[in-house]
Amino acid sequence: MTTNVEFSDTQHVFLNSAEFQTVKTFIHEHLLNRIEELGAEFGRWSRSSVQQFVNLECESQVRLHRVPINARETQLLADALTKEFAGFGPLEDLLNDPAVEDILINGSKQVYVSRHGLLQREHLHFTDNEHLMRIIRRILAPIGRRLDESNPMVDARLSDGGRINVVIEPLVINGPAVSIRKFRKDPLSPEDLFRLGTFDQAMGHLLEMAVRSRCNILVSGGTSSGKTSLLNALANFVPDTERVVTIEDTAELALNHSHVVRLESRPGGYDGSGNVAIRDLLRNSLRMRPDRIIVGEVRGGEVIEMLQAMNTGHDGSMGTIHASSPRECLYRLEMLAGFAGYQGSELSLRRQIANAVDFIVQIGRLPNGSRRILSISEVTGLNDSVVAMQELFRHEPQVLPDGEERDRWIAMGVAPHSPKIARLRQNLQAQAKGHLDV
What we know:
- It comes from Hydrogenophaga laconesensis.
- Pfam families: T2SSE.
- It is a single chain.
- This protein is α/β, with parallel strands linked by helices.
- The protein contains 15 helices and 17 strands.
- Strands 9-8-10-11-7-12-13-14-17 form a 9-stranded mixed beta sheet, with helices on both faces. A 6-stranded antiparallel beta sheet has the order 3-2-1-6-5-4.
- Helix 4 (47-64) crosses helix 5 (71-86), helix 12 packs across helix 14 and helix 13 packs across helix 14 (346-356).
- The longest helix is centred in the first third of the chain and has 21 residues, at 18-38.
- It is elongated and about 85 Å long.
- The N and C termini lie far apart (57 Å).
């Protein structure tokens, strides 16, 4: 694997110059001819052998044709060509950079990257849309996904756990649109999130108590707000004696737990056959003797099965949902159930929601890119046909005299009413008293 290379401003100018593209295209054609001469032998070469071959050929062609570039620029050229033949071209360094969270490509000339929650345009670009398509197909090849005019959209999980979404013509106008979501190889723990300032100590203690006492929790937030990372972290509090089943459209969760069954939905073929939806997986998971069910994202008809599971003995289940506030989260649950053909009355649906969900944790991405828990709310029951909630913690940044904002969470002074947490507190107090008596 190549190491990430930090380029100077001068090198960036060279890599994005017309001269670089001209020389690269010329030597690329020469290398294609040489590879054709080598035949099948080239396909058996290691990455280091390809690198050595490209280095020698680049130096030879630069000298032979008296190309006016220095030794460092020749090496940059050789590195770029090695990535073309043995890697993922211009994307390789971004894919290997642990700080990169998202790679967004809008045609061959626009590449944006998200680092630490902030989106910035990158210097790199592709020669043309054909070049971009070659790299896309190389990324998709190992996972066997087809991308052509009859199947112009692909959403898939990469071998390293990341996710790629591609849309090509005729559905997109300005060249292929590619979205790559990367995931950490070592998921963030609750301690990591605390150090990063996602929540404070009191909130962390409440969340731990809620998970250990088998409360049902929904993590609500917008796109790229950190919902999956928080869900991964909360799963650290699940006892190892319990069996956890995760259900996702594209497997993103990587729970630090000893007994996990990971289920992933399957899209249908070009004729629609073979489709297995999250709703189907959730129904089947109830026959797999789960102690807890974790739904990666609730966004369809599976909401009905999830609420029923939470209401019929699968306490401690969790999931994420796209919503801008805890109240909006409840409205979205109602809306999704309605779309899924829920047959009961509005009152009975709200009663199911109130009985099923214990806590809603709202997380958001702030303008500076940091992810913070914005509120923790407890669902307390039904009041005048409306699902009642009480907010336990709220994020209210403190503005310092110099204008700088400092994170601050306000405890609303209300203790959670959940009998599950009350039972856990009693057990812990009894255990502590037993130790003292001994």
